[in-house]
Design brief:
The strands form four sheets. The protein has a six-stranded antiparallel beta sheet, with helices on one face. The protein has a three-stranded antiparallel beta sheet with strand order 8-12-13, with helices on both faces. It has one domain. With about 350 residues, it is of the alpha+beta class. The chain is elongated and about 105 Å long. The chain starts with 7 loop residues before the first strand and ends in a 6-residue tail after the last strand. β1 and β2 form a beta hairpin.
């Protein structure tokens, strides 16, 4: 009995008999063929991955830059919005000070040689006054470099809100703004006011405005567009550590410089001298930021160094440039600089 199976058939002659033999299919790859195929596939994959790596790195770098830009721009927009309506009078103050002075009021990890700024502005509901401020926070151990925001509402932080009036004692000297200090703002602030990390602390007046900020400068300008000298650099004013103080003794040129060519002059304390009680016409804000990945590298961040013009005003451009050069010398090449100039409504007239 003959059994036929699928496949190729061939006939052979064995001992004179014709025998039909069914040959079974033996389709498939040999070991050599499989090794060649795997080798070709591996080469193609390596080529594809090599081509994709620059694209992937560019994508990641782009994401980092976008994140950094968004943080910095958001912080600058918020500061500009709150600075624009800043107000002063004989009972209120606008002050720029070395950030380290906030440590006397309980702040921790204030970046050395960085400035702080505090003012009053109608940014509450229905234009209600609030105390607003910013300073640079730097914790090298935890790699926290942050722009901190101070916001004091009389409704939520009455004990820390500057006292505008004393109904019991109209002659209370503590109510007066000081030509040499920022105590009008800070006299009631303590460590609790700056402790935002305690989840049970409802009295904190600070929050993080932006992460990754490693450099901060404020440059005030007068009505003629010239940088205002630091009051601490004045030879005639009362001794102070402040940078700018609306309650200090000064005069501002309005349409043309004074006879000596200056457009801003500090005055000596006499019986006839008056406090300036003015905010700057404009303030230029400069931030230097780096991305999160660079922050996490084991690199030491440089200190801020301030350079000055001959008249005692900050040379912000040179200060920033020196800071960037110091960053590069330490292997940090991804720093970004953001600058904006804010016109203060009440400083233009």
């Amino acid at each position: 009995m003959k059994v036929y199976r699928p496949g190729n058939r061939e006939k052979t002659n064995q001992k004179g008999w014709f025998v039909e033999r069914t040959l079974l299919d033996r389709s498939g790859f040999t070991l050599v063929e499989m090794m060649v195929a795997f080798t070709i596939t591996a080469v193609i994959m390596v080529m594809l991955l090599s081509a994709m790596e620059p694209v992937s790195n560019a994508w990641i770098e782009g994401e980092r830059r976008i994140e950094t830009h968004q943080r910095a721009r958001g912080a600058l927009e918020l500061m500009a919005r709150e600075l624009t309506p800043a107000v002063v009078d004989t009972r209120m103050q606008f002050v720029m000070l070395p950030g380290e002075l906030l440590e006397d009021s309980g702040a921790n990890y204030v970046a050395e040689n960085s400035p702080a700024i505090i003012w009053m502005a109608p940014v509450g509901p229905n234009g209600e006054l609030r105390c607003v401020g910013y300073y640079l926070y730097r914790d090298d151990y935890r790699k926290f470099f942050r722009l901190k925001r101070i916001y004091v509402s009389p409704l939520e932080n009455e004990d820390y809100y500057p006292k505008l009036v004393d109904r019991r004692d109209a002659r209370n000297l503590m109510m007066r703004t000081d030509p040499t200090s920022a105590s009008w703002f800070t006299e009631t602030w303590d460590s609790t006011a700056f402790d935002e990390e305690d989840p049970y602390n409802d009295d904190a007046i600070v929050s993080t405005a932006a992460d990754g900020v490693i450099g901060l400068w404020f440059q005030p300008f007068d009505l003629l567009g010239n940088p205002i000298p630091w009051v601490s650099k004045s030879d005639v004013h009362l001794s102070t550590e402040l940078i700018y103080n609306s309650a200090s003794y000064f005069q501002v040129a309005t349409t043309e410089p004074f006879d000596n060519g200056e457009s801003f002059a500090y005055l000596a304390d006499t019986q006839m001298v008056m406090k300036g009680n003015r905010v700057p016409a404009e303030i230029e804000i400069t931030l230097v930021t780096i991305d999160k990945v660079t922050l996490e590298r084991d690199l030491e961040m440089p200190q801020i160094e301030n350079e000055f013009h001959s008249n005692g005003s900050l040379d912000a451009e040179e200060s920033v440039q020196l800071f960037l050069e110091e960053l590069k010398s330490r292997g940090i090449h991804r720093a970004e600089v953001f600058t904006t100039r804010v016109k203060l409504v009440n400083g233009s007239g």
